[in-house]
Amino acid sequence: TGTGVKALALALRVNSHLTEAMLSTNLIDDGSAEIIADTLKVNDILRKLDLNFNYIANRGAKCIAESLVVNKSLTELCLDSNDISDTGAQHFSKALEHNKTLVMLKLNEHFVSAALLREICEKLDKNMGRKSKLFLDTLNGDKKTSWSRSRLMVVGQGKAGKSALIRSILGLPFNKNWDSTIGAEISESQIAGPRSGSQPTHAGWTKVKGETNMDYASKFAARIMLQQLNQSRKTPEKFRMKENTELPRERTIVTEEVQMPSITSKLKKKKSTHGVLDSKTKTLFQTRSVVRNFDVDLLVDAENAENSLTLSMWDFGGQEVFYSMHHLFLTKSGVYVLVFDMRGMLQWNKKNDALAYMSFWLRSIRLHAPNAPLLLVGTYMQDIRIRAKGVITINGLIRKLVKSLGFTQIVKNSVHKLEFFPVDNKERIGITMLRIEVERIVRQDKNTWQNISIKWMLLLDEMLEKRNEQAYIQLSDVTQMAAKVGVHQVAELDEALRLFHEQGMLVHLTATDTLKNLVIVKPQWLIDALSKVIRDGSLHSYNLQAVEKQGLKQDLRLAFDTALFSRDFLEYVWDGEQVPFLVDLMKRTLLMSEWNFRNEEYYLVPSLLNNVTKTGKRLGNRFVLDFSSSFLPIGVFQRLICLVVSHSASNRSRHGYVLQEPKLSKNAALIEVEPQFHIYLQEDIKHQNIVARVNDPQYAAKSVRIIQSMIRKLNCDVMGEGLKWETLLEDSTRLGKLVNYDQAKKEMMAPWITKASRKAEPEAQNVDLDSFLNCLQFD
């Protein structure tokens, strides 16, 4: 009605968000159409206007047409089933001689002549041709804009409610039967943003469904196009036509149809019934509709997505067995959320363990991402409410821990003046505030708004298209893809792959040339594959019936009792898919080592070792790798075992040595490296060190060099060079006093320092595993 149209028109004059107005079947007449037309002259946000099935006649059509001379935002206008004849339609034909943005116009084909419809359609085609050309120029250019993307990594102890928290943040219902996460789960969400400014909103978090080829380049090009169009509208022309004013004409130039090249031929096409058509012009319209619809939808989506964010959300499994694997996927940039169960903090028999897990994760995050923001989130708030001063007590414990660690990355709860954010996933307590705070932090992160080239988006599309066929690509193939889209410099390609890795789009490990040569385009596939081997048997068991049917019952028992996997069992759990690749990847990332001490083919996975050896006195010369000044993460000792066993296995196969089978446990290892040369290793979590003993003094110097080289290698390959330690050597002449390695070198302290040991140690950085093991042969 007229009153309603006036109110809506008034709102649209100051609108900064609405892009589509659906006003069909609203009794809108010529008077109301004139009000709408006046609004269109000042509104620069609206993209689609649907006025079908109203009472707009030629006078109203003339007003709306005249507004199109000024309006530079509307791309789609629907006026079907109104009372518009040739008299009104000709005003649209005249307006389109000046309007360069409208690409869809729907009129009543029964009231407007075929000739006039064809004339209007040709002018719409010219507008579409301009947009198509701009779109094509953008795709083939080198313009940059921000990706507006970040990564959210949710970590913490098992069963603390991490998965439930992600569901709560996304507005999904609480599921009490949700299984604990195996390895890690990756999802993606989009956060709607305001049209202007950067103030966060608590509405509009949407989970992106499925792993689809998102056509990032087209969306990126549309965003750049929109920025250019908005720039051109910053100083709109003030133009108001008087009644009966003739529109100035310009000569119509007939141009060839714009041909979209192969770079856009893979884009998803959509059918439509919108446009100017009757029975005579239908064929002409349908040959253009795909391009037209594609372009309009992209621009509308880009407008709707203005200031929006995309988050790659990683939910890391909390069981300790997964921690060794997690080191591969924790990145320097992004936002971390550390989730803990508040109930454990208030139970005397669980408090120390709860604080130990929190300490582990705080130091792990600082190791991998020393500058990334971190939010602490305590779950089960509903249970804590009944306890007097429960939250205050927990806050005091956390504050003390954070202060003792010197941790400065925590985003505090300024509203409640707490170190953490208390929530309850079931009752939705605290979720809205947490959601707002996460969004605020992401928007403040400069990495979120990093400008990148559209060439990188084209490269990303090329790579992700391959995941329908394969899980990983050779770097040589990626290099060819890069050259195809205009990325020719190695440094630029490396930077693009680093960004995609940091943002969670793919996995590209660069510690060695062999690892660097592989680009994993399906990160979830890799995590799932690793988690079929590395898992908590008490929580994530295999299908015992299926295992027994395959005759692998003993293989399964061996895997969980001794951490040894037969080749047959690996073939089974990986279903014969990419077994050589996965075995090689696990070996090179120090998650697995060959075990050639038996007649059959076995592999050791140290993170599954679960029996604990009691600390006791051992004979032999002792040296200590002391991490107490910083941190000894879970997984370092397991990887060290992996390297020592690999070295022993390599010596056995290369030199034909007859060596004893290593004796291993979760925290200790006795390994014969060479005949009569045994190294005993023990992890001391309490004192944050690794103690090593060698049985024969003649091997003392060699053992120190081997172990130090191995620690340096795993530090470079997996820990981002974040480990800090001091090597201490036992001085038998001074009642077992421990002496710093550098001081011992100066003193030539026997038996640890010899002339041979004073040589430079083997290179560990960017050295493949096989080459590294070859270098561990000392005189």
Explain how this protein is built:
This protein has 779 residues and is of the alpha/beta class. Helix content is 41%, strand content 15%. It has 4 domains: 2-141 and 267-298, Leucine-rich repeat, LRR (right-handed beta-alpha superhelix); 153-188 and 314-448, P-loop containing nucleotide triphosphate hydrolases (Rossmann fold, 3-Layer(aba) Sandwich), CATH 3.40.50.300; 451-531, Arc Repressor Mutant, subunit A; 613-775, TATA-Binding Protein (2-Layer Sandwich). A 7-stranded mixed sheet has the order 8-7-9-6-10-11-12, with helices on both faces. Helix 2 packs parallel to helix 3. 44% of the residues are buried. The model is unreliable at 235-294 (pLDDT under 50).
Q: How are the secondary structure elements laid out?
A:
Blueprint: H1 2-13, E1 20-22, H2 30-40, E2 48-50, H3 58-70, E3 76-78, H4 86-95, E4 104-106, H5 114-139, E5 144-146, E6 149-156, H6 162-169, E7 184-191, E8 205-208, H7 216-232, H8 262-265, H9 282-304, E9 309-316, H10 323-326, E10 335-341, H11 342-345, H12 351-368, E11 374-379, H13 381-384, H14 390-405, E12 421-422, H15 431-444, E13 451-453, H16 454-465, E14 472-474, H17 475-485, H18 490-502, H19 513-516, E15 518-520, H20 523-531, H21 544-549, H22 553-562, E16 564-566, H23 567-573, H24 579-588, E17 593-595, E18 602-604, E19 621-626, H25 636-655, E20 663-664, E21 668-674, E22 677-684, E23 689-694, H26 700-717, E24 726-731, E25 737-740, H27 741-747, H28 769-775
Parallel strand pairs: 1-2, 2-3, 3-4, 6-9, 6-10, 10-11, 11-12
Antiparallel strand pairs: 5-13, 7-8, 7-9, 14-15, 16-18, 17-18, 19-23, 19-24, 20-21, 21-22, 22-23, 24-25
